[in-house]
Write a structure and sequence with these properties.
Its main location: membrane. InterPro entries: UPF0324_pro. It holds the Pfam family Cons_hypoth698. Keywords: Cell membrane, Membrane, Transmembrane, Transmembrane helix. By secondary structure, this protein is mainly alpha-helical. It has one domain: Up-down Bundle (Na+/H+ antiporter like fold). It is built from 17 helices and no strands. The protein is globular. About 5% of the residues have low confidence.
Length: 352
């Protein structure tokens, strides 16, 4: 009797771990299914239009929201959906570091680098201020500012776990940012004859204003090879700003929390583990310790995990909440984008 009582706790530990893993499987599989359908839709779009104007990442969250609008997942699905929305997203952010090489920064020139950094900082501050003036929450304002100023959905996905954003806030910022991102791809080439832009100027403008790298390609390919090359380079350098911004937000948010609670905060609370992993992988990649042959597969894994996470976010969103904040979010994203476009147009006329 006593032996059974002594041994039962030891036996319960693996059983508990196994049961926790088993509880995650249904929700994770559901998210993978939504992500797979989204990837197929993106591939079909690629076959028709030659460029994915709406990425699988956006389709996943919209499809997840559509499913959630007529079916509320039962408790057996919730654990896996929550795991996919948080832990898988954090792993995806960490793996992004393997595709970043700091060596590309040195070859681009100090003037262009300083200009990109200045545009990002100004756009971040003003976008956040506009969102707050429109009555949006602090976390939603941060998401909109980062998405608008850096790299759209990827920035929102990276920043969200750091500031503790909920599903509704993430979905709101991503959904409306995605809509305007597609409009930018379609409308930006019209500025070439209107503003008499050269290929170099238009490439810089596209890299500074279009949200996602595939969208930059879609917006610049019609303008020629030079615009495509320059636009992609500027966009990638803009994406590199995500690292410092994420680390800075980690410090600021932790300070807010520590001030509110008046408790000491350790280093690993100041800088989340996945940000440390991101910086470590970026350093290893820059030192060529991570070989170039690994970057392709890691990038694909990162993209897949991000799409799965966005599907999970969509499945956890109540569309009625989006309807309540839709007008203000749309106004905040639109005004922020117009500001970014105006600053960028002024800048490209300096780069003759």
């Amino acid at each position: 009797m006593s032996q059974n009582q002594v041994s039962s706790p030891a036996e319960s530990k693996p059983a508990t771990a196994a049961s926790r893993i088993a509880a995650l499987i249904p929700g994770i599989l559901l998210c993978i299914l939504v992500a797979g359908v989204s990837a197929l839709l993106e591939r079909a779009e690629l076959g028709v239009f030659e460029h994915p104007y709406v990425e699988a990442l956006v389709m996943a969250i919209l499809l997840g929201m559509a499913v959630r609008s007529f079916w509320k997942p039962a408790p057996r699905w919730q654990a896996g959906i929550a795991f996919s929305a948080k832990q898988l997203l954090e792993v995806a952010v960490m793996l992004l570091g393997a595709s970043i090489s700091f060596a590309a920064i040195a070859a681009s020139g100090i003037a262009l680098l300083a200009s990109i950094a200045a545009v990002v900082v100004v756009a971040l501050c003003v976008s956040f201020g506009l969102s707050r003036l429109l009555g949006l929450s602090k976390r939603l304002s941060i998401l909109i500012a980062c998405g608008n100023s850096i790299c759209g959905n990827s920035a929102i996905a990276a920043v969200a776990p750091i500031i503790g954003a909920n599903n509704d806030e993430i979905a709101s910022s991503i959904s409306f940012t995605a809509i305007l991102g597609v409009m930018m791809v379609l409308g930006l080439p019209l500025l070439i004859p209107l503003l008499q832009l050269s290929a170099t100027q238009y490439g810089i403008l596209a890299g500074l204003t279009v949200y996602a790298v595939p969208q930059v390609l879609a917006a610049t390919v019609p303008a020629g090879l030079i615009s495509t090359q320059i636009g992609t380079l500027v966009k990638l350098m803009r994406v590199l700003m995500l690292g410092p911004v994420v680390v800075g937000l980690s410090l600021v948010v932790s300070r807010w929390q520590s001030d509110a609670k008046k408790t000491s905060v350790g280093f690993f609370r100041l800088v989340p583990w996945f940000i440390l992993g991101f910086l470590a992988l970026a350093t290893l990649r820059s030192l060529e310790i991570v070989p170039a042959t690994v970057v392709g597969p890691v990038t694909k894994i990162t993209s897949f995990l991000t799409v799965v996470s966005m599907a999970a976010l969509g499945l956890g969103v109540d569309v009625r909440v989006l309807a309540n904040v839709g007008g203000r979010v749309t106004a905040a994203v639109t005004l922020s984008l117009m500001l970014l476009l105006g600053i960028s147009i002024a800048l490209v006329h300096w780069f003759k």
